[in-house]
Structure formats: structure tokens, C-alpha cells
Sequence to fold (464 residues):
Amino acid sequence: MFRTIWSSKKRHVNAGFLLLARRSVSVSRIAAIDMAAKDAQLRVFIVAGEVSGDIIASRLMASLRKLSPLAVHFAGVGGSMMSKQGLKSLFPIEDIAVMGTWELLPHLNKFRVRLKETTEAALLFRPHVVVTVDSKGFSFRLLKQLRAKYGQLGLVSPAHFHYVAPSFWAWKGGEARLRGLSEFVDHVLCILPFEPEVCRLNGLVATFVGHPILEDVLELNLGKDHIENGWKLPGHSEEFQSQHGIPSVISLLPGSRLQEVTRMLPIFLNTMKQLQDNFSELITVLHVAPNNHVEDYISRVVDEWAVPIIKVPGGSQHMKYDALSASRVALCTSGTAAVEMQLARLPCVVAYRAHFLTEWLIRYKAKVPYISLPNILLNSSIIPEALFQACRPPELAALLMELIRNEGLQEEQIIGADKVVKLLHPSEERTISCPTLQEFGSQLPDYTPSMIAAFIVLYSALKR
Fold:
């Protein structure tokens, strides 16, 4: 039945996948995708716990729809981007968008309630596939509870996928924690090239699909030239400067979670006060994450602030990269923002503060000397990092002034960005761990991270 549906609905796109189905499905095996065919739909329960995960998940949802021979129905937890793909979130994504160890404690009861609600909703939805995106604290608890519930009920568990591997490489003993995940995670979709091998050595099936941030280039419809020339995303600086009547810009990216923004924004704004004593022409552009709580907080703070500020909504990719293109430098938190700066080829300073006990834990447990992904990938401090007690306005202002004045430092970061983006691209040699992708990858409409991830989800469900 599955073959018939696939052939009739997607013949022009999925000929290779159909051949794969014929080779892979035995008559005696009832795969997850076969069960979906009997239901005449593929039900995917998908959960993202923060803004970056919401974007990744929304792109995966769109790619699953493009590839699947069946109608795809989604349920789960997500944000505004996933809602555009048809998801009705069980509750606001902000309820579980909590980072850190000690920072979680005040939210622990709500966290438990939301976890219970999500588990029950997943069981009622009867998914053929479950996908969790990042947010390992919530995601792994959910997958573990679901696997246990299915076992207690004597039911066949749906395939479990986790998109974005936990940063095991950053922590002492991190690899050892991977070993138990295979009990409730069937496949890890990795966004860094060195992760799959370590996952496999610890009993986890894993595939490198490429870093999702690369799809910003494709989403903006900039054409193949920007991809072939190193996935560059320049933006329209003149248009942005002309529209706002500003000669010189510095971009601030204080994060996407409320607790992160409330900690970092005052530091960033006080840094700008100090910078303006030396660079009076600099105008501050504040990038606001598409998180309702963050948007409300920033609006309150900015209205009372003396520094002139232009706000850029996080939901507008065009405006974001236009603003980054118009900027001389950026000040950002560690995380996705630091990788976005690589696409924009914008020199930056990375800053990070947390609860003092979380900072102590990081100092004690961290295995790598850097906190920003570009520095970790290059094993070099090309991007200045101001962490913990060093993350104060005077230190940040000094680092930014040096970066603005020193063209050599700027060029060093731009050259480093070229290397970082190349490492994050899902080239054929880096997908060698997935022979099926090598064989049938040419059949994909787009060879992008989300399309590769969707292919792996469908193929793995097929084998199950």
C-alpha cells in the first residue's frame, strides 16, 4: 500500500525513494511508515523548546511535507514559525524555554506539568514518528517517558528522532552520557560534522545533516551565486541605512530566552552608553527574538532608555540581515547568533553571563576553552569572548572599540567565517555515514539540512 501511495502522489520527486522502499521493506515487517500508509496519513509529533528550535522544526515540517507520499499531520509544541506550518501548539513555547541549571529551579513545577501534558498529548495523537528539536532537558525526558509508556501499554513505539545533538563534546564526561540515550532515541540528526562518529561509538545511530542556519541563505531567495561563493549573506546595507537615515550601525543580539535577555540586555545597553563617548555617530540596532515574553520585556526597557535604538523584529529575515550588513560590528550572546554573524561575515564580540552557580558549574565541567561555536570549530580565539565576570560594560566597550578600529582583526574574523561556514555545509563526503543518502541524495528537490533531515526521518521510519 505504501508503494502505491508513494508512486501515485510523488512519482516525479521520489522515484529514488520508491526504489529504496522496494529494497528495504520486507513483507513480514510492519514499519512505522506502513502503519501510516494504512491510516492514509503520516502523523508526526514534534516538539521544540526555544526560538532557534522553532525555526529548525518549521523547516523540517515543510521538508517532510515536500518529501512524504502521504498527507502529514503535526501535533506538539512550538512557536510562531511552526504555527505557520500548521502546528497548534499545546502551550506557548515560552513555558519551557529555560536555559541553565539553577535558572530552571523556579520553573520546575511548570516544567513538570508541561512535560506531563506533552506526554499525554503524544499518546493520544498516536504518532508514527516523534521528533524533538534541541532543548535536551525537556526533549530527553519526554522521549524517555514516551518509550516507557508504550512499553507499559504493550504497544509498538513510534520512531524517536532528536534533531541537534547535545553538546557532549563541550563537557567532561559528556560522551559517557550518550550511552544511555539509545534506549529512547532511535536516531540523532547532527548539525556539526564531528558529532556522528562519537555518537555511533556510544551506541547511537546518527547522521550529519548540516547546520540549519545555512538555510537562511535559501530562505531569502538570494540565488545560487551566494551558495557557490561560500554561502554568503550580505544583505542590503544601503537600503537599511537610507530607510532609517543612519550613517553607522552596531548590532546587539542579547538572546532569545527571557532570562537570558533580562540578564544580558542591561549589560549591552550600558556598553553602548560607554561606546558613544568615543563613537558618537554609532546607532544601536537591537535584534528582538520572536518570543512574546522577550518582545514585551525589550519594549518596556527600550522605552525608558536614553540610548537611541532601532528595533529589528526577529521574524523578519530580510530586515535582520540588512541590519547586519549595515553594521560595523556586532555584540551577541553565544549560540545561534554567533553563527549568524558568520553568514553575514560581520565581525563580532561574544558575551555570556549566567547565574553564578551555573557559571561555577561551567568552569568546573567545561572541556573546551571557548563558548562560541566558531571558535570551537576553528579551535582558535578569533572571536573575542567576554565571559562571566569579564562580561561587563567597560570590558565589552574596550573589545568593541578595538574591533572597530583594527581592520586586521575584522579581516581575520571574515576569513575565519569562510572556514566555519564550509565546515557546517552538508557536503557529500560528510554524509558518508549514510549510504542511503549518498545513493538517493540526488533525488532530493533540495540538498539542504532540513531536506536531508526529512529524508532521514522518512527512511528510518521506513526501516523500522
Remarks:
- The mean pLDDT is 83.
- The longest helix spans residues 108-125.
- The chain is about 50% helix and 15% strand.
